[in-house]
Design a protein that fits this description.
The protein is mostly helical and about 350 residues long. The protein is built from 14 helices and two strands, in the order H-H-H-E-E-H-H-H-H-H-H-H-H-H-H-H. The protein has helices at about 1-25, 35-45, 45-75, 100-105, 110-140, 150-160, 165-175, 180-185, 200-225, 230-240, 245-270, 275-280, 295-300, 310-335, and strands at about 85, 90. Strands 1-2 form a two-stranded antiparallel ribbon. A hairpin with a 2-residue loop joins strand 1 (about 85) and strand 2 (about 90). The N and C termini lie far apart (about 65 Å).
């Protein structure tokens, strides 16, 4: 009797399941399942509606100039053949497409490779020094010391000051005749240094200013990473007899790896394109000793005559491609090490 009852229940369950499958199959016949994009829009419509204005603004502010720049880089547009209005006379554009000639001219010109070499040196030096100083200061401020809040505020202050204000202040300090630095040297019986007129000292000066501006960002980011490391790890390592250097090497540095990877990438991109420090402090001089890629692209479009808009746009596209390539290679290197962000 029990066997028959079990068989009856199994048969009924099978029939019910079959009827359920049949109903699901017959529901909306002839209509395929919605795609991934449609499902995302249906499920997260509120989030998409909130993001849409930002996407539209970014598309107008960044998307259009980018597309326009790529288009101009494929032409011979300059100050003499673009569309312009002089008084009541409207002169139409007469520039033509030249394909990849602008890019070929850049890659075969020694000026590009000279600027690229100094830009790489400038970026590596600034990021390395900023990261090292920021990590050292963050490690000190992570300890319980008297006046820690004041020190934090004072060290973050350079980040709050607008870049052009900082650069002009440093330019006064570097002044060869009345600058504070040369007055201090003169007080010690040392001849003044031509900070911004000597190629070597000019490079050192721009690196020093950019490091001063970039350290607060590193400090804040790395300090947050240090505070996220559990204190129990240090206590356990200290009980096991680990030295301060061993604790720093095996606990602090691995714990900071996700944060340091992100801030290093961002700092490299910002420094590679750091226009204000170079242009406002030395204008790429003396000569072209401190000129980086982005300042040279600006010079082509706004300084030289006639203004070469096509070449400047091509330089901008090349800079974008270099940074994109660096970001891809950097991300793959992190992925191989097991770090993802």
């Amino acid at each position: 009797m029990a066997v028959e009852t079990s068989q009856s229940e199994a048969t009924a369950a099978g029939a019910h399941s079959a009827r359920g499958r049949g109903r699901r199959t017959e529901k909306n016949p002839g209509h395929p399942a919605p795609g991934r994009l449609r499902r995302a829009l249906t499920t997260h419509w509120y989030a998409w509606s909130m993001v849409a204005p930002v996407v539209a603004v970014i598309g107008v502010i960044i998307g259009y100039p980018l597309v326009r720049g790529v288009y101009l880089s494929l032409t011979d547009a300059n100050e003499a053949n673009v569309e312009r209005t002089i008084g009541v006379n409207h002169i139409p554009a007469t520039y033509q497409s030249v394909g990849l000639d602008n890019y070929k001219a850049i890659l075969t010109d020694g000026v590009f490779w000279d600027r690229l070499g100094w830009t790489v040196v400038w970026t590596v030096a600034c990021v390395s020094l900023s990261f090292t100083l920021g990590l050292a200061l963050a490690t000190l401020l992570n300890r319980k010391i008297k006046g820690r809040a004041f020190y934090r505020m004072a060290l973050v202050l350079p980040w709050a000051v607008p870049a052009f204000v900082s650069v002009f202040t440093w330019k006064l300090l570097f002044n060869e005749r009345s600058g504070l630095f040369n007055k201090l040297l003169a007080g010690g019986g040392i001849d003044g240094i031509s900070w911004l007129n000597d190629p070597t000292w000019a490079k050192i000066s721009v690196i020093a200013v950019n490091v001063w501006i970039g350290v607060p960002f590193m400090l804040v980011a790395l300090l947050g990473g240090l505070q996220a490391i559990p204190g129990e790890l240090y206590e356990a390592a200290e009980m096991d007899g680990a030295t301060p250097w061993q604790r720093f090497r095996h606990i602090t540095l691995p714990g900071l790896r996700p944060v340091s990877a992100t801030v290093t990438l961002l700092s490299c991109i910002w420094t590679f394109n750091m226009f204000p420090v170079i242009f406002l402090l030395t204008r790429g001089g003396p000569g072209d000793a401190t000129e980086i890629l982005v300042t040279y692209a600006y010079r082509l479009s706004f300084v030289v005559s006639p203004r070469d808009y096509a070449a400047s746009a091509a330089w901008g596209v090349v800079i974008l491609l270099l940074l994109s390539l660096f970001a891809v290679v950097y991300r793959r290197a992190l992925k191989k090490q097991g770090d993802m962000w």
